[in-house]
Specification:
single chain; alpha+beta; two-stranded antiparallel sheet; 17% strand; elongated
Length: 60
């Protein structure tokens, strides 16, 4: 693949992953569910999906 093709593919992949993550969070928030994330040390934390959506503009 040429460098430009790799950039285009990478951008499409990034957009697709963001869309999938957004849909997952919206579905979980609609049902009042939580998601499990990790903090800076790698420890698991449980966070309501609606809180993540509220804190990050790209998921709204």
């Amino acid at each position: 693949m040429a460098e430009q093709e790799v950039k285009i593919f990478t951008e499409k992949l990034r957009c697709g992953l963001l869309l999938a993550e957004k849909r997952l969070l919206q579905e979980r928030a609609a049902r009042g569910e939580t998601v499990i994330l990790s903090d800076e040390q790698g420890n698991p934390i449980v966070v309501p999906a609606k809180d993540i959506i509220a804190a990050h503009r790209e998921y709204q």
